[in-house]
Write a structure and sequence with these properties.
The complex is a heterodimer of chains A (111) and B (113).
Chain A (H helix, E strand, L loop, with lengths): L2 E3 L3 E5 L4 E8 L3 E9 L6 E6 L3 E5 L2 E6 L4 E6 L8 E9 L7 E2 L3 E6 L1
Parallel strand pairs in A: 2-11
Antiparallel strand pairs in A: 1-3, 3-8, 4-5, 4-9, 6-7, 7-8, 9-10, 9-11
Chain B lengths: L4 E3 L2 E4 L5 E6 L6 E7 L6 E7 L2 E4 L8 E4 L6 E5 L8 E8 L7 E2 L3 E5 L1
Parallel strand pairs in B: 2-11
Antiparallel strand pairs in B: 1-3, 3-8, 4-5, 4-9, 5-6, 7-8, 9-10, 9-11
């Protein structure tokens, strides 16, 4: 099976930078997804990392280290609308590549 | 274009009843997934379809749960003899192919009294 660990809750200030970490233990790792989910809404795709390194997409960046079983999502210039749950999900090879989700990190952005 | 749609948005039923939840994926998406999400948890995988066939149903909790996708598009998740523990948000997602980015629907909130 897979074990995915991320902090339950984080708080940050509008305009600041926040890093949400995700560690995982799995066999046959293929890639790692990050999704954003606002309360009462469906998850929306943010990023997918397969190779080591940092991928930047606007205010959001995602980093992966396969050897360390570690990823982080970096959010810059935080806005109030960034308050949401951030879900880390891992897909494995040899199967259906179906993502297994962590419990999510609830990010609260305050003025 | 239209995203993934799910009906109903809310369903309240009594313990022991049968329910059907419907998912309309994005047109052309061959892969369809069902998840269940409880409060404060991430989505929990239930079943995955590639075309008309259930390619992986390892996440279905027991034989009260069943899903179909007869024409490779719309899918229905069926729950027999519902129990209070089945209460959750049932999410459907589709992707162009297996392993691609998933697009989620708004979910069906099921409440079993």
């Amino acid at each position: 099976g897979q074990n995915i660990d991320q902090p339950t809750e984080m708080t940050a200030t509008e305009g600041a930078i926040v890093q949400i970490n995700c560690t995982y233990q799995t066999s046959g790792f293929n890639g790692l997804f990050w999704y954003q989910q606002h309360a009462g809404e469906a998850p929306t795709f943010l990023s997918y990392n397969v190779l080591d390194g940092l991928e930047e997409k606007g205010r959001f960046s995602s980093f992966l280290s396969r050897s360390k079983g570690y990823s982080y999502l970096l959010l810059k210039e935080l806005q109030m609308k960034d308050s949401a749950s951030y879900l880390c999900a891992v897909s494995i090879t040899g199967g259906s590549y179906i993502p297994t989700f962590g419990r999510g990190t609830s990010l609260i952005v305050h003025p | 274009g239209a995203g993934v749609s799910q009906t109903p948005s809310n369903k309240v039923t009594e313990k022991g009843k049968y329910v059907e939840l419907r998912c309309d994926p994005i047109s052309g998406h061959t892969a369809l997934y069902w998840y269940r999400q409880s409060l404060g948890q991430g989505p929990e995988f239930l079943i995955y379809f590639q075309g008309t066939g259930a390619a992986d149903d390892s996440g279905l909790p027991n034989d009260r749960f069943f899903a179909v996708r007869p024409e490779g598009s719309v899918s229905t998740l069926k729950i027999q003899r519902t129990e209070r523990g089945d209460s959750a948000v049932y999410l459907c997602a589709s992707s162009l192919q297996m392993g691609n980015e998933q697009f989620f629907g708004p979910g069906t909130r099921l409440t079993v009294l």
